[in-house]
Amino acid sequence: MVQVLGNLSVASGHTGFQGKNPMLTLGGRARVLCSQGHLLRISVSLHSLRSGGATRRRVLMSEGDIAEQNAELEATDDNYDGKLVVSSMLPSDPRVFASRLRCSLDSWTAAGTRGVWLKLGISQSSLIPEAVDQGFEFHHAEKDYVMMTRWLQASVPSTLPANASHQVGVGAFVVNSRGEVLVVLERTGVLRSRGVWKMPTGVVTMGEDLTVAAERELLEETVRGL
């Protein structure tokens, strides 16, 4: 099937457009085509053909291109009717990513998926603007990735948890055989140089056991601090 818009002809192979007119934006890349009700953003080549002194531009697209652009992103189910997008399987081309993300969100929303978690590493930072354009928000970030989320069910309030906003602290209360309590002066921090005596304290690192953290802070502020 071939759709013609002025001097622009579009070859669609055997897929058909089901009566929908494709929208095209030229300039080295075609922007979108409609197939089975989905809006596809595709990359195609433009060829200039001479015919009767006039120049025609023909956009060729294979069925494989349509299938790739229309495929859902790989994702796993979480325990709360949500989706965790598999970061390692994301396409690197922002245009391909945007098209597949759009199709995925349509499919997941229709299936009742509640929330979507999208983790993008530093090497995938070019995909962030496309995700933002499709309603994703920043949840939290670490030095090598950013986590983004989108709540899909507009009729239900979002239950996605907020980013962690608290730190866990520990203190070591040490008493010797004479009933004396160990106190220290801080060499760093808000109490430095204030002459305040205090028990050894500090912040628990991610994944650290509380007992291990207390022992570590005790050593850091006594033996290792000498």
- Rounded radius of gyration (Å): 29 Å
Q: What sequence of helices (H) and strands (E) makes up the elements?
A: EEEEEEHEEHEHEEEEEEH
Q: Kindly give the count of domains.
A: 3
What global shape is seen? elongated
Quote the CATH topology of the largest domain.
Aminopeptidase
Structural class, by secondary structure, is alpha+beta
Give the name of the CATH architecture of the largest domain. 3-Layer(aba) Sandwich
At the first level of CATH, what is the class of the largest domain? Alpha Beta
> What share of the residues does DSSP label as strand, in percent?
25-35%
In DSSP terms (H or I, runs of 4 or more residues), the helix count works out at 4
- Estimate the mean pLDDT confidence: 79
The main pleated sheet reads as: 5 strands, mixed
> What is the tally of beta strands?
15
Q: What's the N-to-C terminus distance? A: 81 Å
Helicity level, as a percent range? 10-25%
Low confidence ranges:
1-58
Task: Give short descriptive properties of this protein.
3 domains, Aminopeptidase, 4-stranded mixed β-sheet, 226 residues, alpha+beta
Describe what this molecule looks like in 3D:
The N and C termini lie far apart (81 Å). The chain is built from four helices and 15 strands. Mean pLDDT is 79; it is low at 1-58. It is 19% helix and 29% strand. A hairpin with a 2-residue loop joins β3 and β4 (38-41). The strands form five sheets. Strands 7-8-9-11-10 form a five-stranded mixed beta sheet. A four-stranded mixed beta sheet has the order 1-2-6-5, with no helix packed on it. It has a two-stranded antiparallel ribbon with strand order 3-4. The chain is elongated and about 85 Å long. The longest helix is centred in the middle third of the chain and has 17 residues, at 94-110. By secondary structure, it is α+β, with helices and mostly antiparallel strands. It folds into three domains: 2-68, no CATH class; 71-151, Aminopeptidase, CATH 3.40.630; 169-220, no CATH class. It holds the Pfam family NUDIX. Belongs to the Nudix hydrolase family. This is Nudix hydrolase domain-containing protein.
